[in-house]
Write a structure and sequence with these properties.
TIM Barrel, 8-stranded parallel barrel, binds SN-glycerol-3-phosphate, alpha/beta, 216 residues
Length: 216
């Protein structure tokens, strides 16, 4: 499973990339706003240069012509840009047109297997089911990942399942079991994956034993 970083914060992207843990990045309008970005195009290019993988950049328009105009501007910025388009009627139409032009897309705000299938049929490169937001509403987000995996495998669909709205480390291991192609993780979750209290306890004991044995 590929690990994408779900952030617009360059320092986090660079730090995780130095560890070799970034296969791509996803952003959205909320994450961009959080970083108080003024020059969006320059920031997207900086993210592309900071790590080796695809970078999802989301359109703001919700009408077909507006989505296409923004999408083409975004796609021209850098070869690693993937245009992120919401799961709405005009969005689907735009995904079809962009796919026909060889532009990669990520269909976002997916909350059902039917939506994922429509995006795949339109030619989306990625679909982004939002696990945490389903869990927030007492629906099993991980069940949706499993369901989409089964359906895509049944029909040999190549669209990648990009599990999004991941809130904790258990979501990540469950995504791996469920066969998600990609999980996009907040930086805190990536760091959480590194840690286990028994690792810290074990290392402290090794070092203490070594110190005791060599001290004379
Ligand atoms: O990739 C989508 C993700 O950023 C949404 O996460 O935690 O706002 O539901 P969250």
């Amino acid at each position: 499973m590929k690990f994408f970083l779900d952030t617009a914060k360059l320092s986090e992207i660079k730090e995780a990339a130095d560890l070799g843990l970034v296969d791509g990045v996803t952003t959205n309008p909320s994450l961009m706003a959080k970083e108080h970005i003024e020059d969006y195009p320059a920031h997207y290019v900086a993210i592309c240069r900071a790590q080796p993988g695809d970078v999802s950049a989301e359109v703001i328009a919700t009408d077909y012509d507006g989505i296409m105009r923004e999408a083409l501007q975004l796609a021209r910025l850098h070869p690693q840009i993937v245009v992120k388009v919401p799961m709405i009627k005009d969005g689907l139409k735009a995904i079809r047109a962009l796919s026909d032009e060889g532009i990669k897309t990520n269909c976002t705000l997916i909350f059902s297997a039917a939506q994922a299938m429509l995006a795949a049929k339109a030619g989306a490169t990625y679909v982004s089911p939002f696990i945490g937001r389903l869990d927030d509403h007492a629906h099993d987000g991980m069940a949706l990942i499993r369901q989409i995996r089964t359906i895509f495998d049944n029909y040999l669909i190549e669209t990648q399942i990009l599990a999004a709205s991941i809130r904790h480390t258990l979501h990540v291991t469950q995504c791996m079991e469920a066969g998600a192609d990609v999980a996009t993780l907040p930086y805190s979750v990536v760091m959480g994956l590194l840690k286990h209290p028994l690792t810290d306890v074990g290392l402290a004991k090794f070092l203490a034993d070594h110190t005791a044995a060599t001290k004379k």
